Input
Amino acid sequence: MENPMRLGLMAVVAVSGSMVFLVHQVHKRLLSNFMEKFEFEMGGILYAHGQKDFGGSEKHQAKKKVRFANEALENKSGHRETD
Output
């Protein structure tokens, strides 16, 4: 009587483990596809394609470009306008 019970338990464990593995793989694939679509919609500002560095190192971040208006450059040249 114990032998069929043991086989049944082993079958339940095997099927449950297979289902957990399958669901995990599907979840990884869906998350990967979602992140690719999200990155595409955001214009690729999250990280370069194929490079998943979430550490925030300065090496991989885009440099900011600063532009000054002509008025700001004139004021900075040493003379300030007083009202």
The mean pLDDT is 77. The helical segments are 2-41, 70-76.
